[in-house]
Amino acid sequence: MKVIGLSVDATEDHAAWASDIEETQGTRPNFPIIGDADFNVSKRYGMLPADTTGDPKSRTPADNQTVRNVYVIGPDKKVKLVLVYPMTTGRNFDEVLRVIDSLQLTATHRVATPVNWQQGEDVIIAGSVSNDEAREVFGSWKEPKPYIRIVPQPA
């Protein structure tokens, strides 16, 4: 997994921004941040309107408020998740990591993760798996409802 930030600020502004985050939040971003001063990437991902122009330094946070998205892009280069945060809400990196764990698990095993699932907890056998296939792959399972088959997380 790789984390990359995208900012409409110029790359030279990122060092000062990272220092401000470290000073006020107690931690410094430890991933590369791409400067998108021409808004090209932001517009392509729908984070800013297509008609956005001008110098990023003359824009206000209100102008850039849609640039608060988190994208998880899979190895197949397809967007797997989009989280959109308002300017007033900080992003939750624990949730991003939880989703990535789920995406990696469900991409390699025929399971789904339930609400609030955490690494190592039980999972649900995917609905596309017949009972005969499930017996072969998973053995037995808990079945609180006929359509919910719960098994330990596969290794």
* Spatial order of strands in the largest sheet: 5-6-8-7
What distance separates the N and C termini? Answer: 18 Å
- What do the pLDDT scores average to? 89
The topology string of helices and strands comes to EHEHEEHEEHEE
Describe this structure in words.
The chain is of the alpha+beta class. It has helices spanning 11-25, 40-44, 93-108, 131-138; strands spanning 5-7, 33-35, 69-73, 79-84, 111-112, 123-125, 142-145, 148-151. The chain is built from four helices and eight strands, in the order E-H-E-H-E-E-H-E-E-H-E-E. The strands form three sheets. Strands 5-6-8-7 form a four-stranded antiparallel beta sheet. The longest helix has 16 residues, at 93-108.
A few lines on this structure:
This protein has 155 residues and is an alpha+beta fold. The chain is built from 4 helices and 8 strands. The mean pLDDT is 89.
Topology of this structure?
Blueprint: E1 5-7, H1 11-25, E2 33-35, H2 40-44, E3 69-73, E4 79-84, H3 93-108, E5 111-112, E6 123-125, H4 131-138, E7 142-145, E8 148-151
